[in-house]
Design a protein that fits this description.
The protein has 337 residues and is α/β, with parallel strands linked by helices. It is 34% helix and 19% strand. The chain has an eight-stranded parallel beta barrel, surrounded by five helices.
Length: 337
């Protein structure tokens, strides 16, 4: 699988990445053996970029990922994690986490974008994963903490990068406007953009993608299925969009896009994965994976060729924005196994 380098760093990401929230029991329990098998299947498919966070299962995702990769040569894969939510003892546990993960709540999350919080968070992540270093560290959802994140956390990460402790630094969010600020106003090398450059939402063309283009920085695209609506060949009523019930108008639009995809000999999920690569600053698409079957399917979808004229048809029918870049394709010289 082709790898792309984050400019001005030595960090390379495979064009498809593995988002590990499900390893932390997102929404429901994932057995430990299934978690290990999912990482193994992703590896066999050629995926070498793995993204995790303390938030995912109160550290469970990090510990499971570290265990699954422990026997792999460290130079052969890239790991990112996040800071901003410190895990601290929970003085008043209720028995189960209240933020969407099927784990015990013996720990709780505490927002902290201070320099000390960053250092403590990274140290704890290294302990949980058993890794000797993190390749990329993102600020995690700093929406309500811009000042501390920009003035304290990002300089702390930049110092670690400059010392060679981490390879690249950035921020990850579900909005694009503040990510553009991180690119323009801080030392961020890369941002993780969730759900804002997809077949149904190209709002990142208004802010973060022009900033990345202007500054020669990189974007990792996540949430490309918009939490579900773009994940099936035939979208249906009752599916989710950005973690809520999808409005009927959006379901109809997704169906229209699916019909154009079928006319071009491809599928909606394959096109959803390919679409972010239409922009030159997006170097990776990372997908959540819960099972070995999902990992294999995602790699197969990523490997399917998507006709270049599909994007032209979607533009001409008003199904994607007219300013979606036309001159860039998937820019891939190799296919997944």
């Amino acid at each position: 699988m082709r790898q792309r380098r984050i400019p001005h760093t030595a960090v390379e990401l495979t064009e498809l990445g593995f988002g590990t929230s499900a390893l932390g029991n997102l929404y429901r329990a994932t057995p430990a053996e299934d978690a290990a098998a999912t990482v193994e299947a992703a590896w066999e498919a050629g995926i070498r970029y793995f993204d995790t966070a303390p938030h995912y299962g109160l550290g469970l995702s990090e510990s499971r990922l570290g265990a699954a990769l422990r026997h792999r040569p460290r130079a052969e894969y890239t790991v990112s994690s996040k800071v901003g939510r410190l895990l601290v003892p929970n003085e008043h546990p209720r028995g189960v986490d209240t933020e969407g993960f099927a784990v015990r709540d013996d720990l709780r999350r505490e927002w902290d974008f201070s320099r000390d919080g960053v250092l403590r968070s990274i140290e704890a992540t290294l302990e949980r994963t058993g890794l000797d270093r993190l390749d990329v560290v993102y600020l995690h959802d700093p929406d309500d903490h811009w000042r501390q994140a920009a003035d304290e956390a990002m300089p702390a990460l930049a110092d670690l990068r400059d010392q060679g402790v981490v390879g690249a630094v950035g921020a990850g969010m579900n909005q694009s406007a503040m990510l553009a600020r991180f690119l323009r106003e801080t030392a961020a090398d890369v941002v993780m953009l969730a759900g804002r450059y997809t077949l149904l939402d190209q709002s990142a063309l208004d802010d973060v993608l022009p900033a990345a283009e202007e500054l020669g920085k990189s974007v990792v695209a996540v949430g490309v299925f918009n939490s579900g609506l773009l994940s099936r060949e035939r979208p249906e009523e009752g599916m989710t969009y950005d973690y809520r019930l999808a409005p009927s108008a959006l379901v109809a639009r997704a169906r229209a896009i699916a019909e154009v995809c079928a006319a071009h000999g491809t599928t909606l999920p394959a096109a959803a994965i390919a679409f972010p690569h239409s922009h030159p600053r997006i170097i990776n698409v990372t997908l959540g994976m819960r099972s070995a079957e999902q990992a294999t399917r995602n790699a197969e979808l990523h490997g399917r060729p998507v006709p270049e004229d599909l994007w032209d048809d979607l533009r001409s029918q008003g199904l994607i924005r007219p300013d979606v870049p036309a001159e860039y394709g998937r820019r891939r010289s190799s296919r997944c196994p």
